[in-house]
Amino acid sequence: MHWQLFLIFLVASAGAASTGMLFPPGTWYEGMRKPSWTPPRWAFPTVWTFLYLASSLAASRVAGLPGSGMAMAFWAMQIAFNTLWTPMFFGLRRMKGALIAMALLWVAVVGMLVTFWPLDWIAGLLVVPYVIWVSVAAALNLTVVRLNPGGAPEEG
User: Fold this and answer.
1) Could you tell me if residue 153 is inside a domain?
2) What's the rounded Cα separation, in Å, for the pair 80 and 123?
3) Tens-place pLDDT, residues 5-19
């Protein structure tokens, strides 16, 4: 692993993470119907911090390896859709549009797992929690859309 690469991937991840501070959930989201299995609010920054560290570490292990082009393309794809989701859902309140971004994020993260694993099994293993969390997040996004057919309420 190259520490310089790790730091570059981590800075890119920090850019994605900053959207959570720029577009916080707000009272409109608190008032929406959500499933009983919605993780507690504190879980989101905690889990995302771990996932950003793990995916940056995984990418830094794979980036310099021969044949890592597709793996790096999936990493770039996931960080792009990761960055897009929060402004779409919480900023624009386009929950259905955010669901499309989430589906593409899920594809990218699974693509990371599939392409990282043969290059470096430790890097692949580091992506497994990300696949699980994005699967939960996608199910949550879909369920919120279904439970709130009228869309996001106006902020009061």
Assistant:
1) no
2) 20
3) 999 999 999 999 999
Q: Is there a contact between 23 and 90 (Cβ–Cβ < 8 Å)?
A: yes
Query: Residue 1 — very low, low, confident or very high, per pLDDT cuts 50/70/90?
Result: low
CA–CA separation, 53 vs 12, rounded Å?
11
Q: At what angle do helices 121-147 and 95-119 cross, to 10 degrees?
A: 170
**Total structural domains in the chain?**
1
What confidence tier does 28 reach under pLDDT thresholds 50, 70, 90? confident
The whole-angstrom distance between residue 15's C-alpha and the CA centroid of its chain comes to: 12
Cβ–Cβ under 8 Å, residues 113 and 119? no
In DSSP notation, 78-96 reads HHHHHHHHHIIIIIS--HH
Stretch (H or E) spanning 149: none
Residue 104 belongs to domain spanning: 3-147
